[in-house]
Amino acid sequence: MYKVLVHSLLTLVLTSGAVADSVTPKKVGIIGGGISGASAAYYVNEGMVAASTPVNITIFEKNNHIGGRVESVNLPGTSQKFDTGASIFVDINHNIVDFAHKLGLDIGSKDPNTAVDNPTTGVWDGTQFPFVFTGNDTVDDTNAYNRYGSDTPGAVYTFSLDNVNKYLQTYNLTTPFNTIGDLLTATDLSGFLTKTASEVLATIPNANQNYLKEVVEISTRVNYAQSLAGIHAMGMVISQMPNVATSMHVRNGNQQLVQGIAELSGANIQLNTAVKKVEKIASSTGAVQYKVTTASGAVDTFDALIMASPTSTYTDAAIQWVGLKEGAYFTTLAPPVEYTTLHVTFVVGRMKPAYFFKGDEAKYSNLPLNVYTTANSTSVTPFTSISVEYILSTIELYEVCRAANVSDTAVAADIAALEEELASENRTKEAASLSADTKTYAFYTIAKFFSPEKMTDTQLRKVYAGYFWTYRTSHKAYPKLDTRTDDEFPPITVDDKLYFPNAFEPYISTMETSTVSSHNAAKLLVQDLSSA
């Protein structure tokens, strides 16, 4: 009797296992291989495993690499890569930091590539540097107090920190939010985005206008290309994050992070695969499915779909959405979300101090490594910012130029011209020394320009005494963070089992918040598929 019972139980267990193993996996399609798509794939897989539901995930990426707007550029002749944008995150970005640790990536608070512990940063108003951050805390604190006082910086810091802490409540939510309005209500930020940064800053008594223009507004210009008068209050707060948290990055480019997340998800990654058409259909059992057709004509069908890319990404060949419910967001694009085109230019060369100091040779050695422009400089300055990414030794300069097909003769001629300039100005290389190793002089650098329009060679020749290599790119970097009421955001659930995590971006657009929104969309998807 005992043997019969054991045999029966064993048969039952084995049979149950066979049934479980034979369950047809759910199929989830994700359009877009940027940080939203990669993290969505990871969180969908994680959620479906927890729900004991097998799943097959496919990521469609129209470009030849994973990363989306998180893209890294290779410096010729080296193994070094630099981010075109999305170049920093902060230590309170819980998801990004967690992913970086999972992937074993080399992260830090300072870029080891520059070989400069405290790079100088200058505020440029088109004619002069009204303030320069030297990297020396004692000097900077004294100079900042003399120019800005303490009341306004303190008020902005407190205001930003208070609202960052409200946002951080997002991580404590136990159930997914269905709309951005629901999230704002849950985190005590309802109505906060109806005011511009200028409007909330106007409540600071006797606010120091120099601080608002030279520090606060510069951060919104560099991060979102918007002035305080246009950006909503939360956009200003998020732009202050480096002032309330520690900035971090992945050495050799944050694109590694997105690639690693996508690989961790176990998804089938299809590169160079643009989606042409999505049709909502009914399966043989009557369940909702989505038939995806790519530009090459390939067709696949999914039980759920995530559009993990801004609709502006597909403006060159918009996706055709068929069969969606009446008034679905992807067919109306209302409320509208306008994205800003950011032009990024990398340059290897040596800058012309005379461009900034207008012939005042005594100040030439004081040219900051990073230059951020004020709003009133736009009529005379074509760029928003210049950031030195790396300081080149003479040997490295030759290596980079050779890889870029620039002759040694041309490089030698420019170095000779530099020597002549230094001699005529009674300057020495030693006077500009930054370190004792081979990276002695901050003359030849790779610098990154952000600009609202393409930087032309004519414009670069005004800024540079000589340059040897350029790389230009542009993309729809982020939405205009215009004021909105709680109900003026795109929907997260566009249709049955069709999700849009980028609905979050008009609220906050960062790498971290892309993962937060994708995690939320994944929770909604797992909920819906598990109950189907």
Automatic annotation (TrEMBL):
<comment type="similarity">
    <text>Belongs to the prenylcysteine oxidase family.</text>
</comment>
<keyword id="KW-0560">Oxidoreductase</keyword>
<keyword id="KW-0285">Flavoprotein</keyword>
<feature type="signal peptide">
    <location>
        <begin position="1"/>
        <end position="20"/>
    </location>
</feature>
<keyword id="KW-0274">FAD</keyword>
<dbReference type="InterPro" id="IPR036188">
    <property type="entry name" value="FAD/NAD-bd_sf"/>
</dbReference>
<dbReference type="GO" id="GO:0030327">
    <property type="term" value="P:prenylated protein catabolic process"/>
</dbReference>
<dbReference type="InterPro" id="IPR010795">
    <property type="entry name" value="Prenylcys_lyase"/>
</dbReference>
<dbReference type="GO" id="GO:0001735">
    <property type="term" value="F:prenylcysteine oxidase activity"/>
</dbReference>
<protein>
    <recommendedName>
        <fullName>Prenylcysteine lyase domain-containing protein</fullName>
    </recommendedName>
</protein>
<keyword id="KW-0732">Signal</keyword>
<dbReference type="Pfam" id="PF13450">
    <property type="entry name" value="NAD_binding_8"/>
</dbReference>
<feature type="domain" description="Prenylcysteine lyase">
    <location>
        <begin position="161"/>
        <end position="530"/>
    </location>
</feature>
<dbReference type="InterPro" id="IPR017046">
    <property type="entry name" value="Prenylcysteine_Oxase1"/>
</dbReference>
<dbReference type="Pfam" id="PF07156">
    <property type="entry name" value="Prenylcys_lyase"/>
</dbReference>
<keyword id="KW-0325">Glycoprotein</keyword>
<dbReference type="GO" id="GO:0030328">
    <property type="term" value="P:prenylcysteine catabolic process"/>
</dbReference>
